[in-house]
Amino acid sequence: MKEPVKRRYSSPQREAQAVETRRAVLVAARELFEERGYAAVGVGEVATRAGVNLDTVYRSVGRKPQLLLAVIDQILGSSDQVLPAEQRDYVIAIRTATTAEEKLRTYADALGTLMPRLAPLFAALREAASADPECAALDRQIDDRRAANMRLLAADLRTTGQVRPELDDDRVADLIWSTNSSQWHDLVRSRGWTAGEYADALCDLWCRVLLSRSEL
């Protein structure tokens, strides 16, 4: 005699509660990381601020490096939710822009807004990576993901017909990748640049290096 098939119990209310719990955990982590830095915050403190127990943090998001990655994605998406890259407002705006200069300007302005919040988190991750293999793996994962996204941007720029023909997509992606890093932002910030000056410099640099002279 066959045993009855066990059905998975699915409750919309329970699923909605899980989503809200994850959101509360990520908001708490983001607030604490931005207030005190990654290294100074314990996962237990995230749980306390979110009003949940420690196991709930691990179950809903993961360990501390996973919390940091989710917070970074929150900031990139300008949302309390973790949005895929293609759903972020500035990515949508880049893809709908019609000229290469408009696309680069949109991306530079987005970095001018986001990087002051992201750079300290990236710096803390790099510091932690020197002693924590899990953080080192996350640092590499973020770099690889950013490089892949820059190749998508390079392909999008190519559709305008305004990119220098001698630059292939990999070279375009690498040039953008190397100058949109948090390390480059840290460098210009140490020279006293404002967020607006940083964004203007990025756009000017990219247009001069990447676009055909007839487009300048």
TrEMBL record:
UniProt key word Transit peptide: no
Kinase found in the keyword field: no
Key words of the record: DNA-binding, Transcription, Transcription regulation
Gene3D superfamilies linked to this entry: Homeodomain-like, Tetracycline Repressor, domain 2
Record feature DNA-binding region, as residue ranges: 42-61
Top-level division of the source organism's lineage: Bacteria
InterPro entries for this protein: Homeodomain-like_sf, HTH-type_TetR-like_transc_reg, HTH_TetR, Tet_transcr_reg_TetR-rel_C_sf
SUPFAM superfamilies assigned to the protein according to its UniProt record, in alphabetical order: Homeodomain-like, Tetracyclin repressor-like, C-terminal domain
Pfam assignment, any one: TetR_N
Domain HTH tetR-type: 19-79
PANTHER family for this protein: HTH-TYPE TRANSCRIPTIONAL REGULATOR BETI, HTH-TYPE TRANSCRIPTIONAL REGULATOR RUTR
Listed name of the protein: TetR/AcrR family transcriptional regulator
Organism: Flexivirga alba
